[in-house]
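Quarterly update, task 2.4: iron/sulfur cluster-bound model.
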Amino acid sequence: MTYLDWFDDHAKKHQKIIEKLTAKKLTKEEIIEYFVFENMVKYEPSFCPLYAQNKKCHEIEYLSCYFCACPHFRFKDSGIEKIEEKTKYSFCAINSKDGSEGVYGDAIHQDCSKCLVPHTKKYVTKNFDQDWKKAMSKCRSV
Ligand code: SF4
């Protein structure tokens, strides 16, 4: 699956949930709480493959799934730049101190496994947008 395939597919899933919650007239705060990991595992099992194993992508007590992936993630399926023999496909726009570059053969991908930036309640509240694609509008590097 390419980054773009995942991105478009995830946008649809996110939108469907938002439509359901707004039809029920949930407030912003209630929507944010709905996207907390434990609730999502219970009510939205198809949103993330990790839910089937009840496994968090980051071992933290409060984990918001609202901004999965991350508004600061940048990707380009055809490659962003060539670095010697390797191709870089993604990077972090804010150069998070907890992010890193993962090298997989001749491919370089941003590794966010140790970064918690988009998963906290504070971040989601501050950057909240019901339109996930709008919130993620800078992720696609063209
Ligand atoms: S390293 Fe952190 S801030 Fe940067 S793209 Fe990944 S999750 Fe987002």
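Highlight for this quarter: Residues 87 and 107 are 5 Å apart (CA to CA).
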